[in-house]
Amino acid sequence: MLLKFLHSIFIIIFLCNNYIEAKELITWKEFKDSLTANQYPEPTVEKYETVLRLAKDFDITSKLELAMFLAQVYWESVGLQHTKEIACVKTQCPNNYRTGREKDGLYYYGRGYIQLTWLENYANCSSDLYGDMRLVDNPNLVSDTEEGAWGSAFWYWDKYVHDIPEIKDGQFGHTTMAINGPLECKGPYKMKAFKRFVIYSKIYEIFKLSKPLPKQNGCYPMNYNENVDEDTPFFAICKPTGFYQRQAGMYHWCNDNCNAEDPNCPNDMCKCPNDLHLYHMMMKEKKSAKTSTTTMKP
Ligand SMILES: *[C@@H]1O[C@H](CO)[C@@H](O)[C@H](O)[C@H]1NC(C)=O
C-alpha cells in the first residue's frame, strides 16, 4: 500500500517536472550550452532567469526568435562578458556620442548586452522600461545590473528587430542589418556579420530547432556569380569532421579558416558546402588572371 502510494507520488512529481520544463521557452541546459558551445564561459542562473522573465515580458514566444536574439547579444557582449563598450571603459569616451545636451560627467557610450548608445536612446529606453529617466541620470544601471543589461537589449530588440517579418522564415541577416547593418552588411566588415550567423547556427543546433533552416539573407548579398569581386564575399557554415567533431573550438576554427579570404580548410578536419569550395576556386582564378595580366604589361 505504502509502496503504491509512493509510486503515485513519484509519478506526479515526474509529470510536474516535465510540465515545468516544457513550459519554459528554453531549459537551463540549453541556455548554458548555447554559450559554452560558442566558446564562452558558463553563465549564472540569474542570467538564465532574467532571460526567461524578460522574454515573456517582451512577447518572445518562439525559440527561433530567442536563438536569434541570443546570438546577437553574445556577439555584442562577447558571450555576456562585457556590458561596457571596451574602448570606453577607461576613458568614458568623452568626445564620442555627444550631442551637447548631456549633463556634465554623464556619458552615453555602449552599455548593456546590445550596447545601448546615445543620450536619446538611453532616454527612450528608460521611459519605455520604467516610465522615468533613471537610465539617463544613472547610465551605469545599464551596465552594472543584469536587469539593465538585459532590459536594454530586449528593449532594443523589441523596438527595432522583433517585428521584422523575415525572422519567422529564419532569415537571420535581417537582424544583423537592424543592429549593425551600416557597418557590417556593406563595406569590408562582412566577415563580422557572418560570425554572428555562425553563432546563431550553433545555438539553432543546441536548441534542437529544425525549421526554418538558418539563412544568412538580409545583410550582405548572398549569391555569387561570374561578376563577383572581393567586395562580394560568399560564406557558408562548415562543420568539423570525424575526430575533430568532439574537439572544443573546432566549429569556430572551421568557420573562421574555411571562410577566410585565403582559406585554410583541410578536408579531413572541416566539411563545407561545395559552393564554398567552388567560390574560392573561382576567386583564386580571378586573382591569378589579374596578376598575370598585370605582369604581362610592358
Ligand atoms: C525617441 O522617442 C521619440 C518620441 O517617441 C522619437 O521621436 C525619437 O525618434 C526616438 N529616438 C530614437 C533614437 O529612436
UniProtKB/TrEMBL annotation:
GO terms for molecular function: chitinase activity. It comes from the Eukaryota. The keyword Cytoplasm does not apply. Residues 77-167 form the Glycoside hydrolase family 19 catalytic domain. Gene3D superfamilies: 1.10.530.10. One of its GO terms (biological process) is chitin catabolic process. InterPro entries: Glyco_hydro_19_cat, Lysozyme-like_dom_sf. Residues 1-22 form the signal peptide. Keywords: Disulfide bond, Plant defense, Signal. Pfam families: Glyco_hydro_19 (PF00182). The keyword Magnesium does not apply. This is Glycoside hydrolase family 19 catalytic domain-containing protein. It comes from Dermatophagoides farinae. The lineage of its organism: Eukaryota, Metazoa, Ecdysozoa, Arthropoda, Chelicerata.
